[in-house]
Structures are given as structure tokens and as C-alpha cells.
Amino acid sequence: MIAVVLAVLAAAANAVASVLQRRAARSAPADEAFRPGLIWDLARRPAWLGGIGALIAGFLLQAAALTTGGLALVQPLLVAELPFTMLVAGWTFRMRVPTQMWVAVGALTAGLAGFLVAASPTPGTRLPGTLTWVISAGVTAGIIAGCVAAAIALGGPARAVLLGVAAGLGFAYTAVLMKRTVEELPAGVRALAGSWSLWAMVAAGLCSLFLLQNALQSGPLVAVQPALTVTDPVASTAYGVAMFGEDIRTGPWVLPELTGMALILYGSVLLSKYAPLRGQARMAGARHGPGAEGPGEAGTRPAPW
Known about the structure:
The chain is mostly helical. It has one domain. Helices cover 76% and strands 0% of the residues.
């Protein structure tokens, strides 16, 4: 129960972080994409710094949740970040959240609850060996590199979504390293500071943060957030089962588990079809295309979501 509460609080903190970072990143110059200058520019904006503070709070709450719960329990609960994001974004940008978006959020939430009840995940007792870490890191890096390459090549609406998927996968692997790191806590601070997983976790987290900033710069929040929010828990559950021996129910329980995943996918697709999202994505694509702005878009303010 403690792990559930901490995970939900982490989701709320992450939602605040996403909205504040989007608020800062939406006006960042397009030519700063995938350059260190993007972070330097954002670091001078109070909204972005506030988002980083909220992200750190979410990170600590997530780590605390993982000390008592497994990846297959804690990470799916982070899907709650999506409805929190819609609420915070609506209040921050003073925009009404339409019924269609609430239906999508409801489907995502119901799918998450159904999946967790059916799967009934339990923590694992196995620690991954060296070969497992090497293979998992290589596969993860390869998939992320593929998403980034496709995002750069495709541009337009797909760019924000693919970068959101890449960031979500990066944060999922960061959670895997976090789970390994919290196992070192009983040994004391000195042992923790000398743990390879701690520094690998920091590096993975920073890389994932960089990908997220580029995703938020590339398109509206409602394009990035579903991709990020769904990829993270799905990948984390797979990592938990494959690497740490965490257990989820199979047999007849597979059907309600798949139903829950289908509801999560449906909610994500419904969000992506929201009409203002398509218009905002076109604006984002125009900003990244040849020249800076498309015909008739000069002086158009970047879309907040």
C-alpha cells in the first residue's frame, strides 16, 4: 500500500514537471534541437527550473516506492501521470479540457486499474547477472537510437511521438537501474556511492531528460505525454519480469490483462486524434521544416499543449 501511495505521488510530481517543462520548451528556438544549447537556454527559464525541481521530487518518490514494491507494480501506476497532466495543463494554460480527452484519460485509467488487478504483480528476488545487464543495455540503446533516427528523418507529428517513446524507454531503464541501486541502501552510503548502478542510473536519467526536452520542443504536450506515459510502464513491467524475476499472473488472467492494455492503447490513440492536437503538430512540423514558418503562420504563438 505504501508503494502505491508513493507511486501515485510520483506520478503527480511528474505531471507538474511535464507541464512546466513544456511551458518553457514551447518557445525554444527550433535550431537548438539536439544541441547542448537547448539545455543552456532552458536553464535560464524559471518555469523549466521549477519543472526540474518537480522531476527530482518525482524521482525520489519513485525510488522510495521501489524500495517496497517491484517494477511491475510501481511503474504501471505512473500512468496516473496522464490525468494529472491534463488537470495541471488545463489550469496552467487556462484551457478547458474537452470531453473527448476525459474519455481518453478514463480509458487509460480503467485500463491501468484492470491490468494491475488482473496481473497482481509481486516483487522478484532475482538480481540480474552481468550478461543480462549487457544485453538489456544494448537492446535498449539500440531501440532508443532507432526511435531518434526515425524522429529526425520523419519530422512533423511523428517526431514528438517517437521522441516521447524514446524518452519513456530511457526512463524505464533508469527505473531498472534505480531498482538495482536501492538494493545497495542497507549496505550504507559508502557502498551506495561506489555502486556502478548509481552512476549508470544518473547517466541514463540525464540522457532521458535530454530526449524529453527535445520531445517537448518538437510538439505539443498531448502528443508527447501519452507516448511517454505508456511506454515507461509497459517497458518497466517487461524489464521487471525478465530481469528481476517479478511475477504476474498468467493463464486465464491473460485476457483481462490484454483488455487493460487495449484500453490504454485506445486512450492513447483517442488523444492523438484530438483535432487541436493535429493542428498543433502541423505547426511544430512547420517550425522544423525548411525555413522557419509555413505560409500564413508568421507570428503564430506556439501551441501550449
